[in-house]
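Protein: GNAT family N-acetyltransferase
Species: Leptospira yanagawae
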Amino acid sequence: MIKTEIKKLSSADLSQFIELIGVFEDVFEMKPFPLPDSNYLQSLLDRDDFFVFVSILDGKVVAGLTAYLLRQYYSERPLVYIYDLAVKTHLQRKGIGKSLIASINRYCKEKGIEEVFVQADLADDYALDFYRSTGGRAEDVVHFYYPLAE
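Structure follows.
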């Protein structure tokens, strides 16, 4: 297990957010990835319904997650959806991802969030095993999407 510093980014942490996007680019094999304008990225960090947690090792972002707060009408307590989570490949399976999940769960519990959830592809056994190992409970759902850019 590798000990890293877990940090919830604030609006002052744009450079670390950009570092995390680089981790996503590498791990998700998204090269070449056209980085959005820094003003846009800053506007995301300024929002109260967008969360970024990073894992820092030797002063560098090596992992992280992004999440969105979803306000409900069934309950006054919101939900949080983990959108992306990645750990640099050479540091995977060393407890870093688990510490990120624990950190966002702890933060959300303190804020009165009802539930944290995340999606994983059925074909991605590694992700399924990872989320199960962190205490996640699987549901049988089908995800539909509507591609609007075609």
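Remarks: The radius of gyration is 16 Å.
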